[in-house]
Design goal:
Blueprint: E1 11-18, H1 21-26, H2 30-44, E2 47-55, H3 65-75, E3 81-84, H4 87-90, H5 94-107, E4 110-113, H6 125-155, H7 168-179, H8 185-194, H9 208-218
Parallel strand pairs: 1-2, 1-3, 3-4
């Protein structure tokens, strides 16, 4: 492999992401991704300026603050490219991915991964789209298998998750608001807060994440 000359040295900001807080706290996945970025840059003579991190699901692009910081730095001239271990680390949503590629093209920076995907190389764009489509399908299948497994466990009377601190009648009402009224988790949370229904943790207001956990526990989509 020919190392890039100093005059041509590409300045890179790395980005790593894991999907759960547990992985972030223990470093599972993050260290391996970071090491892969360091090795990739060292092999090619790229300058790895810094590495930003997120601990968030791939479908929550609006919560990827580390990604936003990296892109802002690149667009302010700090670096020339954003490097990830694999494209599904920076996004698993195809619409978001398309916007990300357009942004890179518009502002003149490159989105790359260590599997050789590179937005600066038009011949690699199709490969990138295929990889993201495969990642999205894999995510869908995992979610589907998880729901099927939970449903099977419930049918056998298995109690799932932590012991519920939520009164059964409140859980039933949440389920009804979802299935009968078609309300979103956010709308349900607002209504419960407005009505003064106690939260499981004793907080002043309901969080939509708490409502979603009830959906998951009760098998509601």
């Amino acid at each position: 492999m020919t190392v890039t000359s100093t005059a041509q040295r590409l300045r890179v900001i790395g980005y790593v992401r894991v999907s759960t807080a547990n992985q972030g706290e223990k470093g599972h996945g993050l260290d391996a991704q970071r090491a892969a970025l360091e090795a990739y840059c060292a092999e090619r003579g790229y300058e790895l300026m810094t590495v930003t991190t997120d601990v968030v699901g791939g479908g929550r692009a609006d919560k990827m603050y580390g990604r936003a910081v990296a892109i802002a730095a690149i667009e302010n001239g700090v670096a020339d490219a954003l490097l990830v271990r694999a494209l599904d680390r920076v996004t698993r949503d195809q619409e978001d991915a398309a916007q990300l590629f357009k942004r890179a093209e518009r502002f003149g920076w490159r989105l790359m991964d260590t599997d050789k995907a590179d937005s600066g190389d038009p011949s690699q764009r199709l490969l990138a789209d295929i990889r993201l489509a495969v990642a999205a399908e894999e995510k869908r299948k995992i979610s589907e298998r998880t729901k099927e497994g939970l449903a099977a466990a419930r049918s056998k009377g298995v109690r799932l998750g932590r012991p519920a601190k939520l009164r059964p009648e409140v859980a039933q009402r949440i389920v009804a608001m979802r299935t009968t009224e078609g309300l979103s988790a956010q709308s349900i949370a607002k209504r419960l807060t407005a009505e003064g229904i106690p939260t499981p943790g004793g907080g002043a207001s309901w969080a939509h994440s708490t409502v979603r956990s009830v959906f998951a526990r009760e098998g509601v989509a």
